[in-house]
Amino acid sequence: MKSEKKCTSEYGFACLLATAFLLLLTACATAPPGPSGGSTLTASDIAKERELAEKQLAIRNYPAALKHLQKVLEVNPSDPQVHYDLSIVYRAKGIYDKALAHLKEAIRLKPDYPEAFNALGSLYIDMKEYDKAIKWLEKAATDIYYKTPHYAYFNLGRAYEEQKKFDLAITNYKRAVEIAPRFSRAYFRLGAIAEMQGKLKEARLHYEKALLYNTQNPEVYYNLGRVYFATKQYKKAASAFKRVRILAPATELADKAARYLKWLKGY
């Protein structure tokens, strides 16, 4: 009793201090982590990581982009742009389930996100789920706030082309070039459909238009060379096939061009 009394009187303040310290340690040990999960990144650090991620995405260095995006996601898990960018990385790596999950999360966080609608539709094309693709691409194409709807119309063309609904594909490719007259890829697909249908003059015009706005696509040169060859414009055909070998050396496409060039000796 004497010792207990002594603790509560003479040493009371020390006892109370020790008890408070123990309670503080317990609270620190059991307290839940903050929103950042314990991250020490500052706002400036996050901005820098985002900037680095965007730069790596632009040059298609996906492993480096993923590293920076994961740091940002740890701090800002509710940022739809981060989920959108992560979907680009995972799609490029062929990990479609993760790309799909991040796109759906981006749309959940930002329901008015036409860029994500278009990306989701394009992803569904890769997954060969064309009806789902068309649903999302139509949603993107008709969104009045979407600044680049020609991408959605182009992807709609791709989806319909895959379904062999060529009239609908042509309609959407043409809509894409009405909005963006310098859209080389849309002219290329129009040329490919025309060539397949035996409309060689029309195909040639579309391929030439595609090259007018992008002179570095070996596929366009190869297809155009094939049309020139079929219409006996052999000098032009040889020139196009030679261009393929310059732009895409040591590829299957270059090998195909070389086989044509064997028939075109002297041109």
Number of strands: 0
CATH class of the domain at 45-111: Mainly Alpha
As for the CATH topology of the domain at 45-111, it is: Serine Threonine Protein Phosphatase 5, Tetratricopeptide repeat
Low-confidence stretches: 1-38
**Radius of gyration based on Cα positions:** 30 Å
Coarse morphology: globular
- CA(first)-CA(last) distance: 115 Å
Tell me what you see in this structure:
Helices cover 76% and strands 0% of the residues. It has 267 residues and is an all-alpha fold. The protein has a domain at 45-111: Serine Threonine Protein Phosphatase 5, Tetratricopeptide repeat. Helix 7 (114-126) packs parallel to helix 9 (149-162), helix 10 (166-179) runs antiparallel to helix 11 (184-196) and helix 14 (234-247) runs antiparallel to helix 15. The model is unreliable at 1-38 (pLDDT under 50).
In short:
With about 270 residues, the protein is mainly α. It has helices at about 1-10, 10-30, 45-60, 60-75, 80-90, 95-110, 115-125, 130-140, 150-160, 165-180, 185-195, 200-215, 220-230, 235-245, 250-265.
Task: Please write out the topology.
Elements lengths: L1 H8 L2 H19 L12 H16 L3 H14 L4 H13 L3 H14 L4 H13 L3 H12 L7 H14 L3 H14 L4 H13 L3 H14 L4 H13 L3 H14 L4 H12 L4
Helix pairs in contact: 3-4, 4-5, 5-6, 6-7, 7-8, 7-9, 8-9, 9-10, 10-11, 11-12, 12-13, 13-14, 14-15
For the structure shown, list the relevant keywords.
267 residues, mainly alpha, Serine Threonine Protein Phosphatase 5, Tetratricopeptide repeat, 0% strand, globular
